TrEMBL record, chain A:
InterPro entries: E2F-SERTA_domain_protein, SERTA_dom. PROSITE patterns: SERTA. It holds the Pfam family SERTA. It comes from Culter alburnus (Topmouth culter). This is SERTA domain-containing protein. Residues 1-10 have a biased composition (Basic residues). Residues 21-68 form the SERTA domain. Residues 1-21, 79-100 are annotated as: Disordered. PANTHER family: CELL DIVISION CYCLE ASSOCIATED PROTEIN 4/SERTA DOMAIN-CONTAINING PROTEIN 2, SERTA DOMAIN-CONTAINING PROTEIN 3.
UniProtKB/TrEMBL annotation, chain B:
PANTHER family: PROTEIN PHOSPHATASE PP2A REGULATORY SUBUNIT B. Keywords: Repeat, WD repeat. PP2A consists of a common heterodimeric core enzyme, composed of a 36 kDa catalytic subunit (subunit C) and a 65 kDa constant regulatory subunit (PR65 or subunit A), that associates with a variety of regulatory subunits. The keyword Hydrolase does not apply. SMART domains: WD40. GO terms for molecular function: protein phosphatase regulator activity. GO terms for cellular component: protein phosphatase type 2A complex. The lineage of its organism: Eukaryota, Metazoa, Chordata, Craniata, Vertebrata. This is Serine/threonine-protein phosphatase 2A 55 kDa regulatory subunit B. Belongs to the phosphatase 2A regulatory subunit B family. InterPro entries: PP2A_PR55, PP2A_PR55_CS, WD40/YVTN_repeat-like_dom_sf, WD40_repeat_dom_sf, WD40_rpt. It comes from Culter alburnus (Topmouth culter).
Length: 272, 443
């Protein structure tokens, strides 16, 4: 279902991009993520293999991002107003084990919703392919997490509701979970709009992975830094009622905040 | 035939299935020594088998020197790294012979972490007639000894002994992929994914790091070293290849740490061929200097390239090994075949190059006539002393008789390791757990 038209030529930069290219993009992404996961499970994956798979993933990521940008550049003008604030309700309650996967799946879902709202007749195939890719990333991210993956929005909500000491405690346990999830966070770089690159943390031999074991003592010291950033995170994607581009940008900005927190954590643990 | 199959059914727990190949028998490296008299193979189980060419006899001139087993020994054992809770594989990654200096033969063999120097020597005489002990070694009762006798050396059946003389260990964090003996015959280098170390053959407790491409932040790692080799004549020069398809030539006189290359060989990417797999298929799996030292040969997934050391911008010659796989890269990525590391070899005069492919095929390219041939190493298709029939893979729809279509290729049968005799037209081809030795036809 490849539609031809003036609009398409405007934002299609190179020839040969069509359903075939997208299906290959999709399969390369699937296969690469699968290999990435399998290698994570290995005690000692081959460094050459890891580097090659990682570079391929990066390439796919940049291709998808380029696609997203070209879409958004055109579609900002023709954005449909029927896009309603479709963010899910935030169940308030104690945070579950999955803190960060929900954040990213939420963002992915937001962007996916945006995409669906943007679809016009002729670009339906393209954007649906993109949304399929995003859905897959979604499931991968959820599946890649540890333990049951019910999409819980609670973490953000509960943090923003906590005050004072509770927030401190919350932030340190969140930091623990963050350091646990660090590899999978970095993996989510394949998610479009995520500026963070896939990291080789788990794959690398000479990084002592015990460094990343949660140690509350060390992390307590970081909690101050984290608290500074958590308020910004708590400005949750409830802004979905604003323009699509904004929420897209906001998702990126939030991801950048996470990245910054990660940098802090990484700097605390010097690598040999 | 009927009986056989019946007995198999009854006794199938006792009968060995002849098609089953023990994984430990998979040959992982093949190498002729500098005279071609000996051929060494290493396998996944850590064993080294050395073959020796029998002397040509005038009685049977049609039986040109054939290779027979000379020595077998266990070079490496599986080890356990307690610090990282990792098992170190005993698979022999590379064998390199040292030039012969006396009656004994020396070779270097390496697994992922440790290089060993082995001495292979013959013993064909035995001392006999000891004064103080019996023939079987027991000490005689001193009271019975009345005369003085000096032991005499008597000939015995030939015994070949292999003994480890040096063990070069604890120098590599990552997996060793290459070793190369220097032309000075005093040093050698061992290469892992990120570092190259220089050793003296006599000294095992110290090595010098000459190349280190490990970034401070491992997250920034995008390129690893895949192979390295010393120049055959200039003991200060070596090259190393990378996973991004580049080759760097380094001069050890320039600096102690050769992170800055003297020459950088890379072919600019062809934009029309660009795909998601461009980088993976550009990763160089093997690099070999020509015997003359003037040329360099590299093998990446689909091609073999010959470079002139004086021209860094592009290769001198490019040969397509199995270009019909280019449209199948996605499935080859999925089944991991795209990561297969094929080796390549020169013949003695540097006029022909050879490399392996799938379906037990191997290819030879004549650099002068520009002709190429595809041959198959398999028991079914070749009887001993029969001439190998050239094979052909058909890409298009119409398949001629004797051709094989791309989709029928067996990707589990890959020829990764081959060797060419240094002066004659004798080749050794390793097909999984079988070794084939082919010679030129004698008229």
């Amino acid at each position: 279902m490849v539609a031809k038209g003036q609009k398409r030529k405007l934002h299609r930069e190179d020839e040969g991009r069509g359903a075939a290219w997208e299906s290959q993009l999709q399969s390369v992404l699937d296969i690469s993520m699968d290999k990435f996961h399998r290698d994570q499970a290995l005690v000692e994956p081959s460094l050459l293999r890891s580097v090659l798979i990682n570079n391929t993933l990066r390439q796919v990521q940049s291709e998808v991002r380029a696609q997203v940008e070209s879409l958004s550049a055109v579609k900002i003008l023709t954005k449909s107003q029927t896009h309603s604030g479709s963010e899910p309700d935030f169940p308030r309650g104690p945070p579950p084990s999955e803190h960060n996967a929900p954040l990213f799946s939420l963002n992915a879902e937001n962007m996916e919703d945006d995409f669906m709202a943007w679809t016009s007749e002729e670009d339906f195939s393209l954007s649906s392919a993109i949304s399929v890719i995003l859905k897959d990333l979604d499931t991968v991210i959820d599946a890649g997490g540890q333990g049951p993956c019910a999409p819980q929005r609670a973490p953000l909500g509960s943090v923003e509701n906590l005050t004072g000491d509770a927030r401190l405690v919350q932030s340190s346990s969140r930091a623990e979970k963050m350091s646990d999830m660090m590899p999978s966070i970095k993996m989510e770089a394949a998610c479009p709009g995520c500026p963070q690159d896939v990291s080789l943390d788990k794959l690398l031999l000479d990084i002592d992975t015990s460094v990343f074991e949660p140690e509350v003592n060390l992390l307590q010291g970081l909690s101050d830094d984290l608290v500074k950033y958590l308020p910004s995170l708590s400005k949750s994607p409830s802004a979905s009622s604003s323009s699509s581009l904004d929420s897209h940008g906001q998702a990126t900005w939030e991801i950048q905040e996470i990245e910054h927190v990660m940098d802090i954590l990484m700097r605390t643990y010097p690598q040999s | 035939m009927e009986e056989e199959s019946d007995s198999r059914k009854i006794n199938n727990s006792f009968l060995r299935d002849h098609n089953y190949a023990t994984e430990a028998d998979i040959i992982s490296t093949v190498e002729f020594n500098s005279t071609g008299e000996l051929l060494a193979t290493g396998d996944k189980g850590g064993r080294v088998v050395v073959f020796q060419r029998e002397q040509e006899s005038k009685n049977q001139p049609h039986r040109r020197g054939e290779y027979n087993v000379y020595s077998t020994f266990q070079s490496h054992e599986p080890e356990f790294d307690y610090l990282k809770s990792l098992e170190i594989e005993e698979k022999i990654n590379k064998i390199r012979w040292l030039p012969q200096q006396n009656a004994a033969y020396f070779l270097l063999s390496t697994n992922d972490k440790t290089v060993k120097l082995w001495k292979i020597s013959e013993r064909d005489k035995r001392p006999e007639g000891y004064n103080l002990k019996d023939e079987d070694g027991r000490i005689r009762d001193p009271a019975t000894i009345t005369t003085l006798r000096v032991p005499v050396l008597r000939p015995m059946d030939l015994m070949v002994e292999a003994a480890p003389r040096r063990v070069f260990s604890n120098a590599h964090t990552y997996h060793i992929n290459s070793i190369s003996v220097n032309s000075d015959y005093e040093t050698f280098m061992s290469t892992d994914d990120l570092r190259i170390n220089l050793w003296n053959l006599e000294i095992t407790n110290r090595s010098f790091n000459i190349v280190d491409i490990k970034p401070t932040n491992m997250e920034e790692l995008t390129e690893v070293i895949t192979a390295a080799e010393f120049h055959p004549h200039h003991c200060n020069t070596f090259v190393y290849s990378s996973s991004k398809g580049s080759i760097r030539l380094c001069d050890m006189r320039a600096a102690a740490l050769c992170d800055n290359h003297s020459k950088f060989f890379e072919e600019p990417e062809d934009p029309s061929n660009r795909s998601f797999f461009s980088e993976i298929i550009s990763s160089i799996s093997d690099v070999k200097f020509s015997h003359s030292g003037r040329y360099l040969m590299t093998r990446d997934y689909l091609t073999v390239k010959v470079w002139d050391l004086n021209m860094e911008s592009k290769p001198l010659e490019t040969y397509q090994v199995h270009d019909y796989l280019r449209s199948k890269l996605c499935s080859l990525y999925e089944n991991d075949c795209i990561f297969d590391k094929f080796e390549c070899v020169w013949n003695g005069s540097d006029s022909v190059i050879m490399t392996g492919s799938y379906n037990n095929f191997f290819r030879m390219f004549d650099r002068n006539t520009k002709r190429d041939v595809t041959l198959e190493a398999s028991r079914e298709n070749s009887k001993p002393r029969a001439i190998l029939k050239p094979r052909k893979v058909c890409v298009g729809g119409k398949r001629r008789k004797d051709e094989i279509s791309v989709d029928s290729l067996d990707f589990s049968k890959k020829i990764l390791h081959t060797a060419w005799h240094p002066s004659e037209n004798i080749i050794a081809v390793a097909a999984t757990n079988n070794l084939y030795i082919f010679q030129d036809k004698v008229n």
